Amino acid sequence: MLIIGIAGGSGSGKTTVVNKIVASLPKDSVAVVSQDSYYYDNGESSAEEKLKINFDHPNSIEWPFLIKHIQMLQEGKDIDMPIYSYVTCARAKETQKVKPKEVIIVEGILILTNAKLRKLLDVKLFVSTDSDERLMRIIRRDIQERGRNYDDALTHYSTFVKPMHQQFIEPTKLFADVIIPQGGKNKVAIDMVVSQIKLNLKELEDEK
């Protein structure tokens, strides 16, 4: 089993990179675990309190729960990954079954900020994209998917996303084995990463 961490700022194109890696590997050989599923459940908070939730701070993640699930997958056990809604700020009653695969991808803006999680990652990638492009993607996503209007999206970006990126996320580039500039547009970098993953899997298979 190969565990790959894919980090990068909000709106950097991590999901595109993940999807392209998954599409380039053998069918049904990859499981994806999203950091976003492990935000603390704040469903009981008031509407005013929910507006103040800082999703870009490491303390917003239930790290022991996420780490336990990665370790279970390492041990060959299924996990019931939570389903989190940014609209309600709560976890759904339903969960998503994730089965152990040859490749486990753990993706999220903050995954390289946690030392215990970093130790579980065999390969660490950081998706780096221009801040202006990330801002445009964030505003579009917040309006379309998270129930914010344009002014709320801008306020949220300036209050939480930008300062947290500078304080917590950007510095984790230092932990990355590979930095992928331009996100999902960088076909050369993604192809190189996929080739290395295939090589690592072959080496693991040969060791059996």
Can you give a write-up of this model?
Helix 5 crosses helix 6. The chain is of the alpha/beta class and 208 residues long. It has a single domain, classed as P-loop containing nucleotide triphosphate hydrolases (Rossmann fold), CATH 3.40.50.300.
Task: Please render the helix and strand layout as text.
Layout: E1 2-8, H1 14-24, E2 30-34, H2 47-51, H3 63-74, E3 79-85, E4 90-98, E5 103-107, H4 115-120, E6 123-128, H5 131-145, H6 150-169, E7 178-181, H7 187-207
Parallel strand pairs: 1-5, 1-6, 2-5, 6-7
Antiparallel strand pairs: 3-4
User: How many helices does DSSP assign?
Assistant: 7
Order of helices and strands: EHEHHEEEHEHHEH
State the domain count: 1
**CA radius of gyration:** 17 Å
- The neighbouring-strand order within the major sheet is 2-5-1-6-7
Biggest sheet: strands, sense, closure?
5 strands, parallel
- The overall pLDDT average reads 89
User: From the helix content, strand content and strand pairing, which structural class follows?
Assistant: alpha/beta
Number of strands: 7
The low-confidence runs, each spanning 5 or more residues with pLDDT under 50, are: none
CATH topology type: Rossmann fold
CATH architecture: 3-Layer(aba) Sandwich
Q: Kindly state the percentage of residues in helix.
A: 40-55%
End-to-end separation in angstroms reads 11 Å
Can you tell me the CATH class? Answer: Alpha Beta
- Tell me the fraction of residues in β-strands, as a range: 15-25%
